[in-house]
Every structure is written in C-alpha cells, then in structure tokens.
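To the team - pyridoxal-5'-phosphate complex, inputs and output below.
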Amino acid sequence: MIYLDHAATAPVPRAVADAMLEVLTEQYGNPSSQYPLGAGMKRRVEGWREAVAALMDCPAERLFFTSCGTEGDNWALRAAAWQNRHVGKHIVTTAVEHSAVLECCKWLERDGYEVTYVAPDRDGSIPAERVLEAVRPDTAVVSVMFVNNELGTRYPVKPIARGLPARNPKTLLHTDAVQGLGGMLSARELGADFVTVSAHKIGGPKGVGALYIAPRVKNPRPLLPGGGQERGLRAGTEATAQIAGFARAAELRLERRTEIQGHLAGLRAHALERLLGFPDLTVLGGVSSDTAPHILALSLAGWPSQNIVNDLGAQGICISAGSACHQGKPSHVVAALKLPKRVASGVIRLSFGPETTEAEIDACVQALRRHHDQRMPML
Ligand code: PLP
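Output:
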C-alpha cells in the first residue's frame, strides 16, 4: 500500500504504540488516586504535558489535554466568546477553516453572534490586513487557522496577532494549528491566545489533542466542569495511554523535526517536478506561495476527484479528494477559491509523512497519468 494521506491521519510508530501499551497494561493507575500507582501517574501526565509543550514551544502549565482537535477548536471559540461577552457578539474567521471551527461558528450564530467569514484569494492565500480590516469594536474573537488542511496554505497568524491590538485590544485570537504541529510551530512566538493541536497528525493516537491558553486569558471558561482534572478546566479521568502516545510522538517529532521538514519539502518539490507538463493539471495553493511541505493540492481539470480517489484506491494508493472530513460532499474550501467548475471538480490532495519515499510519489504520479489517459473527462 502507498499511503499519501498524512493530513487525514498518520501511522503510529511502534515506539508510540509501545509507550501506550505500557500504560494500558502496567501503569494503569488513575492519576487522581492517592496511592503510589496513582500519584506516579499524575507525575507522568505532567511529564507528558511537558513533552507536548516542548514541541509546541509553550509553557506546560498553560497546555490542556483534550479528546481531539475538534474539541480544542470548540472549547477555544466558546471560551474566548464567553471571556469577551461584554466586548460584543462579533466573530471574525475565514471561509476556509476546518469544519470544527465553522460548525462551531454556526452554533454561535444561533446564539446571537454575527460571524464574518473572510474570503481567500484564488490561490488560497489570505493577507493579514484583510482579516484585521474585518475586526470591529464588538469583535470578541478572531479565529484563523495556521495551516489549511486541504491546500497546505499557511496563514499569517503572527502578523494578525501583532496587528490585532491596534484594531481592538480586547479581541482574542485563536488558531487551529492541527496541521502545523509537525512543523516549526512556536505558540510563544505566534502570539495567539488559543492554539489547538491534535496528536494523530504527527503519529500519535487518534482521540487526543491539546489546547494552549495564553496567560492573558486569566480564568478560562471550563469546557467540562467536574472532578477537577486539567486544573479544573477539562474534567474527566485523563486518557493516560492516549496522552502517553501523544507525548512519545511529540518527542520523536521534536528530535527529528528539522530533518523531517527538509524531507517533506524535498518530497513536495519532487512531486511538483514529476507533475511538470502533466496535461490538464493545476497546482492549488500556488507553487511558490507559503505552503506547508506535507500537503500538495492539485486538480486534474475535468476528471472528477472521487473517480481518481476510487481508481487509485483500488490500486492500493491512498490519496484524498480534499479533506477526509468532507467525503462525498463538495468541499467548502475549494468552493471558497471560486475556481472554474472543471478545476474545482478535480481537486485531489497528496500529503506526506516522514516515511514517505520518492518512489511512492513516482508510483502515484504514474497512476494519475494512467487515469488521465485511460478515462474520459466527465466535464
Ligand atoms: N483542524 C484541522 C485543520 C484538521 O485538519 C483536523 C483534522 O483533520 C481537525 C481540526 C480536527 O482534528 P481531530 O480529528 O483531532 O478532531
């Protein structure tokens, strides 16, 4: 099998699975229990928090484990809206956010919030000024993702954080950094008040994530009031095995981060080179624009993406027609680019991980070429 869908989820390395197994079978204590098995677990959870915080470059005491990226996004938006309930009921986000942010915004609209969805340019980019211009005296929250999961486009979160106080010093900034965790993410340097991440995009298990909340948010609104876990903000017995796996994956990534980023950039460049001169092909997100190295979005104009995905899937090659969360439905991200219909219908995403090889990319490009040559265009 050739797996080129790391933006959907990544394989779990043996070392991560082993760390989880040890916790499940031997170190199974509840961190809230008083005897050594429990107290030891509590200390280990704090150690694991430090490992994830090291990868994110943020203080561990401001990092809270969640059950996934979706949970972090929802918590951040609701906590920021609540914190700024006296500022107003306006939210600024982008039209290309993950549905974890967009669907939460829709719920906030039902609660009386007005949401401005900033549109991208055709290449997927969004200048910081466009976001800042949308900020008003009653804007409670701005939420702009760090890396787009369908296009790989990086968004200017740092310049937005720098420009925000001049527009409205009270407005809080959230960034969904789920697709940026493996890269050179530094929550400290980014300047966002909330940063969401998820383990399963970097080789950790599914079902665990984390939310960084900056010291400026003094008393964050709890997501789950209850037994006091996660400093009383996100109660529920800690998912110790998941957290252990997240921490191990974070350590492995941090050890080899620069090397992995270089490898991914090389793979992306290799794929682009192999695709050069490919008929009916459009590269989305721009060839030279600021794009994360693990994602390459393409369109085979006229060849419907679902057919391509099915055809390659039958040959054991896993790629995606945009985001894994939108299978079967037209993607809101592609729609926001306002591409010609033929281009929009043929969008596919290749995404790479540390284990991906150039030979796998070559095999995928060959399969795409066969698909193009043997099938009739639909549009
Ligand atoms: N945000 C982005 C940008 C994502 O790519 C994803 C997952 O695909 C999520 C949020 C949701 O993360 P999780 O699957 O952990 O809920």
